[in-house]
Write a structure and sequence with these properties.
Blueprint: H1 5-15, E1 23-29, E2 36-40, E3 46-50, H2 56-65, E4 67-68, E5 71-73, E6 76-78, E7 84-85, E8 87-90, E9 94-96, H3 103-113, E10 122-133, E11 138-142, E12 151-158, E13 163-165, E14 168-172, E15 175-179, H4 181-185, E16 192-199, E17 203-206, E18 209-212, E19 214-224, H5 243-252, H6 255-260, E20 263-274, H7 290-302, E21 307-312, E22 321-325, H8 341-352, E23 357-360, H9 366-371, H10 377-383, H11 388-393, E24 395-396, E25 398-402, E26 417-418, E27 426-435, H12 454-463, E28 465-466, E29 469-471, E30 474-476, E31 482-483, E32 485-488, H13 501-511, E33 520-531, E34 536-540, E35 549-556, E36 561-563, E37 566-570, E38 573-577, H14 579-583, E39 592-597, E40 601-604, E41 607-610, E42 612-622, H15 641-650, H16 653-658, E43 661-672, H17 688-700, E44 704-710, E45 719-723, H18 739-753, E46 758-761, H19 767-772, H20 778-783, H21 789-794, E47 796-797, E48 799-803, E49 827-836, H22 843-847
Parallel strand pairs: 20-25, 23-24, 43-48, 46-47
Antiparallel strand pairs: 1-16, 2-3, 2-9, 4-8, 5-6, 5-26, 7-11, 8-10, 10-19, 11-17, 12-16, 12-19, 13-18, 14-15, 14-17, 20-27, 21-22, 21-27, 22-23, 28-32, 29-30, 31-34, 32-33, 33-42, 34-40, 35-39, 35-42, 36-41, 37-38, 37-40, 43-49, 44-45, 44-49, 45-46
Length: 848
Amino acid sequence: MELDYVQKLGDALRSQSGYHEPWATGTVTLSDPDTSFCFKCKDGTGRFVDLKSIGEEDIAALINACDPAPFGRGSESVLDETYRRAWKLDDGSFIWRFNPDSSKFVTELAQRLCPWDSLKNGIRAEPYKLNVYGQGGFFKTHQDTPRAENMFGTLVVVLPIYHQGGNLVLRHAGRQLDFNAPALLDLSPPGTIAWTAFYSDVEHEVLEVTQGTRITVTFNLYFDSHRISPIPSEQTVKIPENPFTIALREAFYDAGFIREHQYLGFGLQHTYPREPTSSDLWDIKNCFKGPDAFLYRILDQIGLKPSVRYLYDNSCRDSDFWVLLSKPVIGRDEDDRGYEMEITQLSYLFESDKNARIVWKPGQSEERLMEEEDYSEWQRSYLRKDEVEEYRERTADVGWVVPPTANLAGFTEFTELGNDPAQEIFYFHVCIVVNVRNVPYGCARFVNLKSFSEEDITALINACDPAPFGRGTESVLDETYRRALKLDDGDFVWRFTPDSGKFVAELAQRLCPWDTFDNGIRAEPYKLNIYGQGGFFKAHQDTPRAENMFGSLVVVLPTYHQGGNLLLRHAGRQLDFNAPKMLESSAPGTIAWVAFYSDVEHEVVEVTNGTRVSITFNLYFDSYRSPPVLPEGVLKVPENPFTVALREAFRDASFIRNHQYLGFGLQHEYPREPQSGVLWGIQRCFKGPDVFLYRVLIEVGLNPSVRYLYGGAYARSDFWVLLSIPVAGRDEDETGTSIYDMEESQLEHLMDSYDAAMVVWKPGVTEKIARRNRKSAYWNECYFSDQNYEEYRNRTINVNWVVPPTTNLGGCTKARETGNEPVQETFYFRVCIIVDISEVPCPSLESA
């Protein structure tokens, strides 16, 4: 085989390790009542303190209430001030109103500490200890003792008490974090706390406190199946295409690789708390951490059916093989007669687990074992005549992509040094095994774009299916509208990754020149499309697939064809993307590409000769990726006629007096889920002229707000309703009896359901004009009804439209006429920007 896929997979997986931090840090400024803190004194009385104003007297009282803090040395609780010098209060002796496993805090913690978890469970933070480190206090290196199988991490909160030193140093897998809470709190407002969360198997130590008093509250973090996930499933970060996923697909499309390997093995980076008598591993994957969760999700999403297993070695670690088990087993040190310990232990493992398998260590085999002169007890057991056939049949050939690590002789009976004595739960190292023969992949065909042949094109066409498109919510095959073939993203692999290297930087600077690039860009393979002679796709928009999707990238491969141009149209402009002409004189292996905003209308004109092959990527803004353009590369908005006119207007006191709000309709549409909440993040996805406008308003010193405008179902009313969130609207009232009731119910639904909803007169309309037209529009009639008039009048604002709003003002379009996919739960909306003039600081007003 030309490629050593196991080595290649290992290198690719290791290249991803830098993306998985085993810790997260931050600060939170608390408000009442979360700053209230109470502890029990030795005399049984309680003392309340406020973290915004805690004094030396409070600190002295707290220390007097504490006991010396022990730690765990094996199964014993030890007081040893050469290893730890601190005081502690147990969780029943203090009360703090701050609750870290609710509200926004737990969501931020989950997104930062567990970015690759699907988080099917909730998170529970249990108060564990209050610890006090006075001057000279410290705690040398240790791990947190596991207290339950679903415990995955620790949260340490440093209270705003003056101290120097006492940094918390965390170490894992060759990386280190120095958590310097005093530096974080130094310039923070009163009542600010500093926090760090980390996986509980991470080694850590508290450095010596050189001044003051370091006070912390520690919480144990648990996955909890009885709580809802802090991250909704639709917000779970999708794992992007990366070198490891590409290498995996390449390997499993190679028939030679499948013939050569039986199993692939992956040692994991983290250890997991388990009871040795736990029956199976059905739930441990839901507790995977960082890179282990990332690995498991990739294997599962690609369809490789990963299994979680233990590897056991003999006590002396002198055997040529391990035993692969599906559950933790304590093992047995001796037989009934008290000797031949290891022979009994090996047979006991196989008796305890019917799925047990022999796994040869790297470079070892039965043939090599036969050549040895001295055997370990396990090796002698394997070679016994009455055992060898069974063991041989229960041997698995595992190619280790990532070699297994420590703790292979079962469990470590106690952590040498922990924050508590060891209990009945111990840390285990586990591994993941993939049965290569069970993977539903076949032999794939490899092609080189520098020498794409007719035979390759024919094979590719034979692998494809007819390409449907979306008509509203339906997937349609209609060759009068689209004639093409397609391969889904899981059915092809291409090493070209457009969201890395120089390409993504060039794409970003050209497509998003005015963006500030607070987020990275992720390009997800979507489809491979083939348009043979006579193939085409009439005008359509790309169906939105997520709220952070902003564009499409179409890459045309270097196959001979004529026609098949991609025509793009938006706001009266058109681009004719003629890939054949661009590729005509290019070097072999050259591709042509075009990127455009996903709401841009486009069509593929008829292919007149040859075969047009293209690969489409969906483009997403991604907060977990580094920006493609560094801050120094972000373009500054230049002074221009619009900024000059804005400043002139806001220096004019009469302009301020005569206007209440300014409105700006935007040029592009944005994908949103109805009822998805406030618009706090949509400006991060603004496109082209919209981001330019928003940046100008910000840089001039205005306070732009992003809003939706809703009109009646038939757009005959004289006003819109201004909302801060996208709403699907309601087409009828509870009885559904009449059009009048439908629209009145819809208007009242909008106004009653959203306190921030306001009425906005359309350009040229006043209340007097609308009253004359009250019989001509159902919303007008509803507005002027005795029941609603006073309230709606008080909730009416006067907006002067600098740029009038455009279409789609009746809510979302639930079913676009044509798209590349059926409409799902995300729809295009048009939004607008509103500026409240009264909020703008204007020096000229003071002198007017």
